[in-house]
Every structure is written in C-alpha cells, then in structure tokens.
Amino acid sequence: MKVLITPTSFYPQKGGAALELLRSFSTDLVFNPHGKSLTEDELIPLVKNCDGFIAGLDYITRKVLENAPKLKVISRYGVGVDRVDLVAAKEKNIVVCNTPGVNANAVADLTFALLLGIVRKVPLLDRKTREGHWLRSIGFELNEKTIGIIGFGAIGKAVAKRASGFSMKILAYDPVINHEYALANGIIPASFDEVTKEADFVSLHLPLVGESRNIISGEVMKNMKKGAIIINTSRGGLIDEYAAYELLVSGHLGGLGLDTFEVEPPGQSPLFSLDNVVVTPHTGARTTEATAAMAGISVKNLINVLSGKNCPNIVS
After folding, report:
1. Which of 42, 80, 155, 186 is at 20 to 30 A from 163, Cα to Cα?
2. Is the dihedral of CA 131, 231, 290, 47 positive or negative?
3. Which one of 42, 205, 241, 282 is the catalytic residue?
4. Active-site residue 264, yes or no?
C-alpha cells in the first residue's frame, strides 16, 4: 500500500521507531518535499494514488479528497482536525483519526513558558541585555493570581496542574466539564463570561470549529480585567487578532502569548511590534517525548485501519 507522510518529523534521515514500524508495513512511502505544512495544490499530486495519509497541519480540503480516489485513512499526527474536511471525508468513506492526549504536557509547558515570558518580560530583557542595556524593569508574580482555562480536556487539565504549583486560583470553562474531577483538584467550574471577566490570565485550549472562531472577540476582550493576559497555544482563529492589537496598544490588555495564528505562517503581523506580545511558531507539541508518542500512535492508527483492525482513535 502507498502511504503519504507529511510531518517533517518523519523525514527519512531522522529515522525512529515509528518510521521503522511504518516501513515494515509498506515500502511505498511518499515524503513531504516542501519542508512545511502543505496547501491544497501541493497536496493533490502527492496524495492522488495513496491508500493512507499520515498528516501534519496540512489543508486537506474537499478538492484534495476528490483527487485521492484510493485514500482510505487520514491519520493526523496530532489532535486537531480543523484543517480536514470531515464532511467530505465521511462522504468518501475515508476514516480520520488522531493522537489525543499525547501532547498535553508539552503544550501545557509552553503555555506557562509564554505566560512567564510576558509577566517577567523575558524576551524583551534578553534582547536589551544582549544590546548592552541594563534595564530595571518591573514584572509581577503568578502567585495567588487567577487563571481562567477555556477548554478543559487533557491539555486544560495539564495547565491546571501547573497553575496549582504557582498557588493560583483556577477557573475553568468547558460545556462538558467533569465536575467531580474539578472538585477533587481545587478547580472552580465557571461560565465563559465568569472566566473571561474575572481571570488575570486566560488560556485557550479548545478546537477551532464554527462556534469557536473568534470566541475571544473584541467585545469579550473589552470586558476582561484591565491588564489581563491571553495565551493561545490551541488554534489560530480563536482570537480576533486585529482587535487584540488595538486593545494591547490602548493598554487595556496586558499581554498576549501566541503559539498559533489565524494565518500560518503569519507574515509581518502588527502584533510583532509590541513588547508585551510573545510568539512562537506553532511549536507547542514539539518536544522529544511528544513527537515520538504522536509518531508512534499515528502510525499504529494508520496500520490498524488499513489492516481492518480496531482503531480506538477514530474521529470520523
């Protein structure tokens, strides 16, 4: 069977147990020649004769799937499936699966890296010190501040564990929150409005679907505490980036940490001109441990589906 592999972690020269497992299943492998997430036009010639597809953050549109008549499974290397046309995949009987939970610790770590980078102005002070300046800048502590977590799945829970280590008050919003888990772990279930209005820091951990696009709108941000900080290590498109820029410039928002953007790569965003904005290139899941786990599970998912075996991680 022919398999397309687009995540750059699978480059043949990198090797690894997951790639060896895949090679034991198929010797007809197609690798990503572009070194980045692929567009519709870049995907079509690569996937057209493939039976399976291990997918990174590629744009898997209806047009892509219409040009892949043999495709039986899309195995996402990661959790999010917002760039996969699930409706078209279902119509064409293409199974879509993912790797839930395995990158939770990695993303939670980066969430706090961004948060600490903002409150202690680490990127700014690093840059200025290297330039020969010796700034006397004042930051502030996380201790006993309130963090609001929007989306309380595996990553949201991992963020809460780290927040408890800083003695923070933890509010969490999720339509299907586990109240028993929250009570046992000192987490306060709250409404979306309560989280966004009461928290000193708001951290986003939810998928990008129709109702969540621009969930952090200009109006929502205007109603946040003055000086509130927003962290998004989930999906671009959850925040109105233009409105965020205006509110950062006005001083209403205290800071913004982004690992994801509405357009990726984002080009020269006006946000980059602000010292209270800390950004990373969608790297939350990229730790040695998380990438190995995602690679292994994505390969096993693909092999199970193509072999007619049970796959526990089917999304659609």
Report:
1. 80
2. negative
3. 282
4. yes
